[in-house]
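In this supplementary section we document a worked example of the pipeline. Step one takes a protein sequence of length 277 as its only input; no multiple sequence alignment statistics are reported here. Step two produces a three-dimensional model, which step three serialises into structure tokens for compact storage. The input and output of this example are shown verbatim.
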Amino acid sequence: MSNEADYYDQYVDISPEDYIRETQLNHPAQVERAAKIIENFPTEAMSVLDVGCGGGIALHRLLGARPELQAVGLERSAPTAQAARNLFGLEIVEGSADALPFEDGQFDVVMANEVLEHLPWGVFEKTIEEMTRVARIGVLITTPYAERRQFVTCPKCTCEFNPFYHLRSFDDVTLAGLFAGFERVAQEIVWTKGHPPLLYQLRRMKAALGWIPALPQHTICPQCGYRHQKKRNAPKKVEVEAPSERGLGRLFIRAMGLIPRPKRAKWALVLYRRDAV
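The serialised model returned by step three reads:
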């Protein structure tokens, strides 16, 4: 299994079902995204394919609002696909987005939520073609919008990569003509507060000095497979100590959070409809 695949399958000391239930099912971002999908989903559509459906959260909530839909999910990770079946009783097909095992125009709507930004060159272009081929009425996607991707450095092989494996960014221009033969008919941007100024850069500087782990705990280096190793807890000292560097760091981060921050684009939902023949 590749390092990239390991990243998406790392269920440590927890079952896939519990992970989805505890960290995703009622997460505010998941709830918000599902609500936008339901709001923008074509009313005349009677079938949907969710490409890269993960644990099936979006399909589950969409079916709650539209129980008449014929809904199918496609997921590459076998443990995650099985968890979606166990939790929500969904029909999940295991496969890859760049080789959809379905007929031309088999689904009224094909959607991909937080998927396209992860796809490498070659796979991305083929996935776009496959989604276009299988969709009869429209395509619906959600993706980070105008993302200023940040990078971390692997302390073992010095490979620089985005810790969430985001390989591309999308903006209004790139989204407009993404699917050949389809017209963009709706686009909604979800906004959030910007990051505290220079906070990410300060974290990088601290990592370079060895003060904090260079990689977040969830991240696996895609080149060499290195992952953050938890440090063993040292025996606690009895004597009273000065405030720790960690404590001071937390106070600094809180202080930075009080600085007014302009809003920034978080992600976009885009609906495309097939051009009239």
